[in-house]
Amino acid sequence: MSETAPPSRRGRFLRIAAALAVLLALAGYMAVQYLSGGGGAPRCVVRATDPAGENGTGDTPTYEMSPEQAANAATISAVGTTRGLPERAVTIALATALQESALRNLNHGDRDSLGLFQQRPSKGWGTAKQILDPVYSAGQFYDHLAKVPGYSRLPLTEAAQRVQRSGFPQAYAKHEPDAALLAAALTGRSAASLTCSAPDSAVAGDAAKVRAALVRSFGSGVRPAGSDSGVSVRVSATTGAGPDTAVDTVADTDPSGGPAGDGSSSRRGWELAHWAVAQASVLRIDEVSYAGRVWSAKEADQGWRRAASSDDAAEAGTSGGTAAEVRMRIAR
Length: 332
Fold this sequence. Notes:
Number of domains: 2
Number of strands: 10
């Protein structure tokens, strides 16, 4: 005959079990928040430039992501526009990466799938090391997309499926609104629409790393200033005393600017500015300014604020400059 535990012991067991369940749930929640960049971690938000929403008469579409996801999205966009591909190609690529990896550079996946687009070494996409390079994997995706006849006129899910050969081809469609929102900001068509918060860190930035990242993302079209160009980029470092000291200047040598040479240097400028904000956490960029607007990591909740005056802009360090110059200030 089995014995039953007395009521006091049963109550104690139940309380312990309940406590363990709460701890497990909390651990799971923290893990999810860590992977997604939530739970008080730095966040990036892209917001549609919708006059109705901005005036309070309607909802403005937004998409929120972690700095890691924003940096990867900015790289995907930069690789596409550097190849002269249209915004539609960038939208297709971003929607695909949202579905395949949630814009995270995964070192695992189904069978030997890896990276942002879950490309497989065994299927000829490259070595594991190559695929885990976001610039390389994005380039591979665009190489295959460009071979799809009329891809820009196809439904997004069909264009993506022609490249990916996924077992769930309809899954890409649900990401199109978010991908389109991201593409509008990251290709520069939607001005001052991407902002990020940055972590509190004493880690200094490195102008050489910013320069290298620019060249990696935008290719040989970004090189030392001095040639006839439409948009220049100035990287400065905070010295801790007095005004910022210019460390490096690079220039976008395509005077047409923008994806597929759309003739807008302003669009190219916002593409570079948004790229810098998306990379701020990784590259320790404290401030970005362009066309009279300023983003600051220390005042990220204000988004892109307007420089009050040219004098104020000069005092702010990198906030000055002409409308054709994107300025980035790195942490020191």
